[in-house]
Amino acid sequence: MRFSHSFLPVCLLLSLSTPLHAAGGGIDKSVLLDQQAIQQLVLRAEQASPREQCFLYTELVSAMTEMAGKQMLDGDADDASVTLKKVAEYAQLIHMNLARDTKRLKNAEMLMHHTTYRLNEYLHSASTEDKPTLKETLKQLTQVQTELLTQVFNH
Fold it and tell me: Domain containing 21: what range?
C-alpha cells in the first residue's frame, strides 16, 4: 500500500506514542501528541479542496481508529467511545462527499480496508460493554469501504 508523504509522520507519531508521564505532573504526553496530530488532520481535511477531502477524511478515520484502539487497550473505554463516535461522524462525511470527483480514490479505499480490518481486530479483544459501539462503527466503515470500492470500479 502507498500512503501519502504527509500521512507517514502521523502514522509514525501514532505508532510510536507511548505513555510518557511528566516528572511529578502525571501528564500523558502521548495523548496530547495524538490529539494534536488528529487536530492537524481535521484542519487539513476541512480546508482541502472537495476533490481531496475523501482521502483526507479517510486518513483521519484511520488515525482516529488507531487512537480508539489504543484508548481501549489503555482501559479508557469512555474516551474510546467518544473517539469512535467521532470516527462515525467523519465516516459520514466520506459517504456524503463520495459523489464528488475525488483524487486518490483507490488509496482511500485501500486505507479504509486496512482501517476496517484493524477495527475488527479491536472488536475481538474488546470488553463486552465496548462491543456495541465498535460493531456499529465497523458496520458504518464497512459500508463506506464498499461505496469507495464501487466508486473505484466506476472510474
Answer: 7-154
